[in-house]
Records
---
Amino acid sequence: MSQSIPPIPPEDVRSATEAEDAKLASAQRSYSQGQLVRRRFFAHKPAVVSMAALIFIILLSITSIGFSGQGTGWWSKSFLATGLTVDGGVPTMFRDGFLGEHPFGQDSIGRDYFAMVMRGTQQSLLVALGVALSSTVLGVLVGALAGYFRGWIEAVLMRITDVVIVVPLLALAAVFGAYAQGLPGGTLTLALFIGLATWTGTARLVRAEILSLREKEYVSAAIAMGAHPARIILKHMLPNSIGVIVVNATFAIAAAILLETTLSYLGFGVQAPETSLGALIQNNQNAFTTRPWLFWFPGLFIIAIALSVNFIGDGLRDAIDPRQKRTGSARPGWRTAFGLLGQATAEERSGKQVTELSGGPTQMQPPAGMTDHGPDLGYDPTDEKRDS
Amino acid sequence: MSLSVPTAAVDPFADKPSVLEVDGLVKHFPITQGIVFQRKVGAVKAVDGVSFNLREGETLGIVGESGCGKSTLAKLLMRLEEPDAGTVKFRGEDFLSVKGDELRRLRRKIQIIFQDPYTSLNPRMSVGDIIAEPFKLHPEEKPRQGIRNRVKELLDLVGLNPEHINRYPHQFSGGQRQRIGIARGLALNPDVIICDEPVSALDVSVQAQVMNLLDDLQKEFGLSYIFIAHDLSVVRHISDRVGVMYLGKLAELGTQDEIYTGPAHPYTQALLSAVPLPDPTLRGAREQIVLQGDPPNPANPPSGCRFRTRCWKATEICATQEPELISRGQIAQLAACHHAQQNEKIIPAHS
C-alpha cells in the first residue's frame, strides 16, 4: 500500500453534492411519510368503499334519531315509545312510499324498529370505539414499557399479560361487563371496561415492535444525546410502530362489535331499556321464523360495520407498511379482481408492459414516463445504493 | 496528511492535554443458562482491559477484525453500555460515575457517529427535526440565532443544501445521510466525536468525501476523534495514532507512522501484510504472513498472550505470562508482545 485514498478537494465534494441536489430537485414531487401513507390508502379501493360505507352508517344513525335518541333528528319516532302494532309490524320500506310509517317494521310492543336499530348502531359503535381506545392505550402502555425497560419490569408485565390471555376472553369480559353495569356513564363505561379484557394482543405486538426498534441506531443516538426514556418511547419508538398500533386498533374495533354482540346476547352487555345491535338480536331471536326482519336488520348492520372496519384495517396495514412502494395505478381494479377485465387490458391500463400472447414479435414499449412501480414518487428505491 | 513524514517524526500532540483518558476498561457479557432461574455459565470478554488516552485535536484510530470488541468499546465510551471495570475520564472528570444533570452535561461533549446511515436516522422525523433534537434535549445550549437557523448552518457546514431541512431521510443517499448524522453530532459543539465505522457502509468515493469532511471539521473546531474501522487504509488516512485490537485487548498502540511502517506486534504485521498492494510491480516483493485458524472464542480466550494460538513466534512464556502493553527495547510504540520486533520485510519498499 503505497498511497491511501487520494484526498478529494472540497470543491469536488460540493459539486458532487450539488449533483445529488439537482437529482432530488428534478424529481418534481417529494412526499413525506404521511402523504405516502394517505396516497396508498386511497389507492386501496375496498378500504375507500368501506370507509364511505362506515361514514354513511355513522351519519345515518346519528342524524336520524339524534345522539340523545329522543327524536332530535329527522326521524321523529323514539326507540322507547311503544304503540299500536300496525299490520303485524311488517316493514313499510318500499311498500308505503320510500320509507313509510315504520321502514324497519315494529317489534311486539309496537316500538319503531328503525329507531331501535339506529339506537343500537350508535351504542355498538360507541362500544367499539371505547373498547378500541382503552385496549389500545393499555396495550401500548404495557407493551412499550415491557419492551423498552426489559428485565424485571418486562417479566412482571408479560406474566400479567399471560394470565389475562389464559382466562377465557368471554368470561373475563362478562365479569367486567357485569361490574360496569353498576357504574355511572352507561355504555362508554361498559366499553372501557371490556377493553380491560382485550388489550393483550396489542401489548404483545407492541412489545415485539419496541424490542426490535430498541436495537436501531437512532435510538442509541438519542440515548447518547441524553434523551429521557419517555421521550425515546414517544418520539422515536411509537411513531415507528404506529403501523402495528393503528392496524391493530381497527381490528380491535371489529372484534369489539362482535364481542359486545355476544355479551348482550348473553345478557352481560348493554341493559334494557338501552339497546345495542347485539341486544336487539338477542331479544328477537325467537321471532326469527315469524317476523324475520327483527333479526335481519340489526344483523345486517353488524355485518356492514364489521366488514367495513376490517377492510379499512386491511387498507391501513397495506398503506402504512413502509416496504410498500406501489401506489394506485399498479393495483388492479375490482373488475380485474373479479376477472371481468382481461389481465392484459388491466396491465395496459395500469401502465405496465403488455405481454403479447399472440401476433408474433411485437415492439414492447412501456408508456413513456411510467416505470414498473407506478408513477414517480420523487424517490426511486433502486437509487438507495447509488451515491453521489 | 502526514504520509511523507519520516519514521522518527516527533509526536505533534505530545504537549497537548488529554481529553479522554481510558484506563483498564472491561466489559464482559454474561452467558446464561436456564429459563426461569438463570445462572451464569460464562462471559464473553468483549473488552478486557483497554487503556489509552486521547489528546486534544488528535485522531486515534482503532482497528481490528470483526468481533474484537471495537464497537463495544465505542458503546462503553458513550455509556450506551455500562462497563464492568475501568475508568473513563473526560478532562479529568470521571465520566462513568456521573449521574443526572452532570451526565447530561458531559454527554454534550462526547458525541457519536454511527456505522449505518440507514438506521441511525429516525425515518419518521424530518432532517430539520433530527438535527434539532440535540437542542431540544439540551435547552441550555439553545443557539442564539434560533434553532432553525442553526440547523441550516449545520447542514451547510456538512455540505448539504440548507433548503432540504424539511426532507426526510429516505430522500437522501447513504453519503448524504451520513453527513446528516455528522451534523447532528456537531450540533452541541462536542470536544470528542466517536466514529464507529462511519464509512464502512459507504462506497469508496463517498468514503473519501466523508473522511475529508471529518478532517476539515477537525481542523475548524479542534475536535478529537476516536475513529473505529476495520479498513486499514481508511484508518491510516485519518489517524494520528493507531491502536490495534485483538480479542478485547490492545495489541499495539503507536503513531500512525510507527504502526504502518514498523509494526512490532506479530498480529499487526500479519494484518498489514494482508493489505492488497495497488502497485503490481511491488507484489511478491514483500513477505506475506498468512495466519492459521480463526480467532479464539472470546468467552474462553487462551491463557497468557491471546494471540499465541495463531502466532508463529509463540514460546513457553507466551502461554504463562500475559504481555503488557509497554514500549520494548528500540521500539517507540507500545506493543503487547514478549517477542516484539520490527519486521521490515512486510513493508513494501517505498512506503
Note: Residues 1-8 of chain B have pLDDT under 50 and may be disordered.
---
Amino acid sequence: MADRMEQVEVEGGGAPVIEPGHTFGTVTDKISSIVLTRPTSIGWFVGFGVAFLVTMMLLFALGYLFAKGVGIWGINIPIGWGFAIVNFVWWIGIGHAGTLISAILLLLRQSWRNSINRFAEAMTLFAVACAGIFPLVHTGRPWLAYWLFPYPNTMIYWPQFRSPLVWDVFAVSTYFTISLLFWFIGLIPDLATLRDRSDNRWAQMIYGILAMGWRGSARHWHRYESAYLLLAGLATPLVLSVHTVVSFDFAIGIISGWHTTIFPPYFVAGAIYSGFAMVLMLAIPIRKLYGLEDFITERHLQNSAKVMLATGWIVAYGYGIEAFMGWYSGDRYDAFTLWNRLHGPYAFLYLLLLTCNIGVPQVLWIRKLRTNPVALFLISLVILVGMWLERFVIVVISLHRDFLTSSWGMYYPTRWDWMTFIGTIGMFLAAMFLFVRILPMISIFEMRTLLPEAEVKVAE
Amino acid sequence: MKTTPIYGIMAEFDSATALVEAARKTHDAGYRKIDAYSPFPVEELAEAIGFHTNRVALVTLIGAIIGGLSGYLMQYWMNAVNYPVIVGGKPPHSWPAFIPITFEMTILFGGISAVLGMLALNGLPMPYHPVFNVPRFAMATKDRFFLIVFSTDPKYSPATTRAFLESLQPRSISEVPS
C-alpha cells in the first residue's frame, strides 16, 4: 500500500496527486457531497446570476443582429472577418486543452490528469459551443446555416469541398460530437454513484436515467475501458486536426501574413497555450471555493504552468519564423506585413501581444510563482488576453492593408461586437456554474483508481 | 418448487484484492455464470471471471472504415460526378482536397461506433436489473466489491453455492430475487 503512494510522490518530484489519508469512501463523499448535500452558497447564486445576465446581453446582441444584419458590426471591406472570426478561433483554441488533458494525457499515462479532466472536458464543450455561435452568425443569414451541410435539396446543388471553410464545418461539428461523447462516457459511472448516493427521489430518477443502469460489472468495465481508450486514441489526432483545419482557413488564402506553412503547428500550440491558461483560471478559484486542494494539488498547478511555458515557446518560435520569413522570402508584400505589424496603426496591439505571450509568461521559470495560485491566475489572464490579441493581429492586421493601397482600410469594433464577445464569456461562465452545481466536477471513479488501496495484490 | 425465483447469490467484499481472489477461486471451482462488480475498473477482474472476448475495438474499426469511405465517396460523387465545378483550376476529382473531411468522418463514425458499440454490447441502457434488489448493492458504486453466482449456472444449487461463497470469507451474503 505504501509503495504506491511513495511511487506517486516520487514521480511528481514534490506534491502528490492526492493528499494522503483518503479512502474510496472519503473521495466519493467529498466529490458527490458538493452536488448532493452541500447547500448552494450565496456566492454561487450571485456568480450564476451575473453570468446569466451577461448571457441575456448576448441574446439581445444576437437578436438585434438577426433583425438588422451584420452591418451593426464594425466589419466592412477590406476587413470582412473582424471580431466574429477572432472570437471563434480564440474559443476553439481554449477548448483544445480539455481534449489534451482528457485524451492525450490519458494515452501518455499521466495519472495526475484524473482530477482535472472532468471539468476541463466541460470547459471544452462550453468553449466549442461559444465558438460555434460566431461563424454561424457571421454568415449573415444564420437561419440558412444548414446550407453548409450536404443535404439533397431542390437547388440540385452541393457544397464545394475544396474550401477550407467547409472542412471547418466538418472538423468543428465532429470535434463537438466526440467531445460530448467522451465527456458523457466518462460521466456514466459517476452518475451511477450519484444515483445510489442521492436521497432525493427526483435526483435519483434523473441521475438514474442518465446512468443508464450502470452497475459496475467486470464485463462492462472491460468494454468500457476499451471504448474509453479508443475514444482517446481517436480524439488525439482529432484535436490536432481541428486547429490545423482552422489554420487552413487562413493559410489556404493568399493574403500576406496568412499564406504560410508554419500555421498548423503554431495554431495548435497556441490553442493548448490558451486552453491551459483557461484551465488554471477555472481550477484555481474552484479548488479554493470548494475546498478541493486535496485533489487539485500544487502538482497540478505546477504541471499546467510547465505546459504553458513549453507551448508558449512554440508560439514564440512561430512569431519568430513569421518575422524571419517576412525578411528572408524577399517578397515585398510579406516584408510590408511585418513592417506594418511593427509600425502600422495597430502596432501597439502587436507589441502588447508579444509582451503578453512571450514576455510576461517567462516568470513561470521561477518555481515560487509556479506554485503561487494568485500569481498563476494573473499570468493565465495575461496569456488569455495575449492569445486573443494574436488572433486579432492575424485577422485584422493582415486584412487591413493588402496588395493594393487603394483598398486599404481600418477596423473598429462597435458596441455590438463587444456585447457579443463579452456575452459569450457570460454564457461560458453560466454553463460552468451550472456544471459544478449539478454534476461531479472531478471524476470520482478515476480518483478511486489513484488510491493505493485500488491496487490488486494477488499471489499468482 | 421455489416460490420466488432466485436470480443468484451475491457475496460482498471489502477490497479489490479480495474480490479478485474470490472471483478466481469461484471460477476455478467450476462456476461459469458469474459476474463481479467494482466501483472502478479492476484490470484483473475480467480475466478472473473468465471474460476475454471484447469486440469494442472491432466495432470501432468497422465504424471508422465506413465513415472514411462514405466521407470520401460523398465528396467524390458530389463534386466530381453529380455537380462537377472547376474551382481554382483543379480537376473535379481533386483528391488531396478531399482528405480533411475524409479524416473527420473517419473519426466521427469511429467515435460514435465505439460509444454505441460499448453500450450495445453491455446491454445498456438497462434501467432495471435484479442485482439492484439487494439494498447493500448501492455500495457497489462507492467502496464495496460484489461477486455473484447466477442461478442459471449448471453447478448452482442454493445450499452448496452459498456454502462455497461463505468459505471465501465475504463481508456479507445475500440472495438476489429476480
Note: Chain A touches chain B through 68 residues (CB under 8 Å).
